[in-house]
Each structure stands twice: as C-alpha cells, then as structure tokens.
Write a structure and sequence with these properties.
Blueprint (H helix, E strand, L loop, with lengths): L2 H4 L7 E9 L4 E10 L4 E11 L2 E2 L4 H12 L11 E6 L2 E6 L6 E3 L1 H14 L6 H5 L6 H10 L8 H19 L1
Antiparallel strand pairs: 1-2, 2-3, 3-4, 5-6, 6-7
Helix pairs in contact: 2-3
C-alpha cells in the first residue's frame, strides 16, 4: 500500500469533478478521485449528489442508494430515503426531498441520471472508495470545489437578486 492509504487521505491528492446529471434542475454529481502516479490508475474516493447546491448524499454508499431509488422509479414507497413518488394527472414523477423546495424528476430524467452516474464510473477503480472512502464535510467540499474552480452557489439570495436585476435591465433594453 502506498502512503496515501496508510494516512487514509492526503487532501492535496483528491481531485473533484463536477458532472451535470440534470442541468435544468441543478442536479450534479461531485466525484472525488485520486491519481496513483506509480500505477497510473485513477481511484474513485467518493461520489456525492448535489441538488440546487444542497448536499443530498455525502458518501458513496448513499449515492449508490440514491441511484437505486431512481432506478426503481415505479416501486418507490414511504421507505425511500431520498425520493417520493408524486402523481399528477396520471403521470408519475419523483419528488426529491430537499429543504429549499421540491424538485420533480420525470421517469426519463431518472433513467438518464442513473445512466450518467454509471457512465461516470467507467475508467475508475473502486477498491479505494469501498475500503478507504474519503468523507466530505461541507467545509472540505467547499474548499475542494473552490480550489478547483468548481464552486457551488453558496449565496442563493445574491444570485436571485442578480437575476432580478438582469431581468430589469433586459426589459429596459427591449423598451
């Protein structure tokens, strides 16, 4: 084993990537991996789900659980940890449980998110994530994302004000 595993994790060796699972709904996969220069392999260390800049899952196993709830779209029930089934005019969708508001996911979106997650694992070795998972905290996640220019929106109120100002400016230009 190399020094990285013995010390559990060396922060500088973790590389985050932000993958859009559904850009319209603000659902992202943050994948953290390390590169082993000796073996020239990439090892997945964690994968978490962010929705509307809120951390939904914080461990790889939770993320896998979330993906299975998506995969079992039609079979959801009250025991689901992340998603509820919602029905409107005989059309089923999944309702993502987040604090800020509800995000509804259609069946095709659920299948696409599930597929993209599985594709994102290709080319990465999973042994280290299963044995020595890197655990994100909100602080380490923010630092990793900031250091690698993958910032999440931590100031939603500011962005809403900016959007409103941009709309006003656009209306002025149209007149």
């Amino acid at each position: 084993m190399d020094e990285l595993i013995i010390n559990n994790v060396c922060y500088s060796n973790i590389i985050p990537t932000k993958i859009g699972l559904n850009l319209d709904k603000g659902i992202f996969l943050i994948r953290a991996y390390e590169e082993d220069s000796k073996s020239k392999k990439k090892y997945l260390r964690n994968a978490i789900i962010l929705a509307d800049d809120e951390i939904i899952t914080s461990t790889f196993s939770d993320t896998a659980h979330f993906m299975e709830e998506l995969n079992l779209f039609d079979y959801g029930n009250d025991q689901n940890k992340y998603l509820n089934i919602s029905e409107y005019k005989k059309t089923k969708s999944l309702k993502l449980k987040i604090d800020s508001h509800n995000i509804y996911i259609s069946k095709s979106e659920a299948k696409t998110i599930y597929k993209l997650f599985n594709l994102s694992l290709m080319g990465y070795f999973l042994t280290r994530v299963l044995e020595y998972e890197y655990r994100f905290t909100p602080e380490t996640l923010a630092k990793l994302l900031f250091d690698d220019d993958l910032q999440i929106n931590l100031d939603k109120d500011h962005d809403e004000k900016e959007e409103e100002e941009e709309k006003i400016e656009l209306k002025k230009k149209i007149k």
